[in-house]
Amino acid sequence: MKPVTVGVLGLGTVGGGTVNVLKRNAGEIARRAGREIVVTRASARDLNRTRICATDGITLTADPFEIVNDPDIDVVVELIGGYDLAKQLVLTAIANGKHVVTANKALIALHGNEIFAEASKKGVMVMFEAAVAGGIPIIKAIREGLAGNRIKWLAGIINGTGNFILTEMRDKGRDFADVLGEAQALGYAEADPTFDVEGIDAGHKLTILASIAFGIPLQFEKVFTEGITKITRLDVEYAEALGYRIKNLGIARKTEEGIELRVHPTLIPKRRLIANVDGVMNAVLVCGDAVGPTLYYGAGAGAEPTASAVVADLVDVVRAMTSDPENRVPHLAFQADAIADIPVLPVDEIKTAYYLRLTAEDKPGVLADVSRILAAHNISIEALIQKEPPQGETSVPIIMLTQLTLEKEMNAAIAAIEALTTVSGKVARIRLETLG
């Protein structure tokens, strides 16, 4: 049978890894797919650059549109990243009747609804396993492996840079800025680390996971994101003392009122497996009504881990190329006419527990004032630590864990606490999830 011809857009880290995996495992891949999968064309900005892959047998071009318009290409693999150019190339490939595989989480999160609609019209597939958690097959696990479940919630460490920073802060007692500099030097973080440390990258991935988990449209603009830049070494130490670890989690939960979509630093009990996922590794915890909690762990980035997911998508495309489009696995797990626009809750309506750290004068009545404010907003204290004041100082740090409460109640309580003359500075607030 004629080999399936592939055009790769972008020969960087993931593109080079994809070519390497396809060549090295060609025989095994053909046995699984039923046909050979061969990269015949690839595009790159700099054709003379040294690459991690051999390019013999591959026609290189600096113009990616040559590939998406080439009638001899069956599948386009988009690995250039970004928004505008990638979207234009993908839509052109679809219009030309080509299947698409992409690792571009931002593209799917922001433009996936339009892309999938066009793909359905043309009867082609758009696969995106590599867009979330690198080599972990989390899309397939939720979309197919857990298809018999109602997904209750999911929580994931889905940004390796943030996880590396928080791990180093905990293990070595370092400050955020210090570890961020090392992450940039090691290539884990970009020169502009905003997407990683402010939760935007994780927000893109959470958007995709929530859509396939709950059968809702992709809607990144409704994801609440809060970064890790305000986490201090003290917060990490106090969390440990209380039996928790701080992880930057993407959380999606289906409630009677609507869907929660949020990315933020989170205290989780040290006994949870996901609390022990360290460094640049990723993990996603998914809770279904039939199966209960299931954990998926692995490398969330890198040349060959991500290439593993890209090649798996290519194999799925080849397997399904001869099937009727209506009999294929839906792009977003649910049939297109069954996608439900369930409301996404504003963050004020989300209910969770909290870690609070404040600095107050060391004198009678201060803690009572804080407790009264919390009680007035229906907030119960679960645990409390009050430290001795440093020598020569009159202010002490007070650390509290609360029980479940609405975010808007906590916002009001924090504002009232910060208005006390006996409390100095801002109240540090980190959300807490038991993931039980």
Q: Any chance you could write out the topology, listing elements then pairs?
A:
Layout: E1 4-9, H1 13-24, H2 26-33, E2 37-43, E3 59-61, H3 64-68, E4 75-78, H4 84-95, E5 99-102, H5 105-122, E6 126-127, H6 138-145, E7 151-157, H7 160-172, H8 176-185, H9 194-197, H10 200-214, E8 224-225, H11 233-241, E9 244-254, E10 259-269, E11 281-288, E12 292-299, H12 303-320, E13 351-361, H13 366-376, E14 381-386, E15 395-402, E16 405-406, H14 407-418, E17 423-432
Poorly predicted runs? none
Structural class, by secondary structure, is alpha/beta
Shape: elongated
Count of DSSP strands: 17
Q: If you compute it from the alpha carbons, what radius of gyration comes out, rounded to the nearest whole angstrom? A: 24 Å
- Percent in helix: 25-40%
Distance between the termini: 51 Å
Protein architecture, described:
The chain has 436 residues and is α/β, with parallel strands linked by helices. The chain has 3 domains: 4-135 and 303-337, 3-Layer(aba) Sandwich (Rossmann fold); 138-299, Dihydrodipicolinate Reductase, domain 2 (2-Layer Sandwich), CATH 3.30.360; 350-432, 2-Layer Sandwich (Alpha-Beta Plaits), CATH 3.30.70. Helix content is 36%, strand content 25%. It has helices at residues 13-24, 26-33, 64-68, 84-95, 105-122, 138-145, 160-172, 176-185, 194-197, 200-214, 233-241, 303-320, 366-376, 407-418, and strands at 4-9, 37-43, 59-61, 75-78, 99-102, 126-127, 151-157, 224-225, 244-254, 259-269, 281-288, 292-299, 351-361, 381-386, 395-402, 405-406, 423-432. The strands form 2 sheets. Strands 7, 8, 9, 10, 11, 12, 13, 14, 15, 16 and 17 form an 11-stranded mixed sheet that branches. Strands 3-2-1-4-5-6 form a 6-stranded parallel sheet, sandwiched between helices. Helix 5 links the parallel strand 5 (99-102) and strand 6 (126-127). The mean pLDDT is 96.
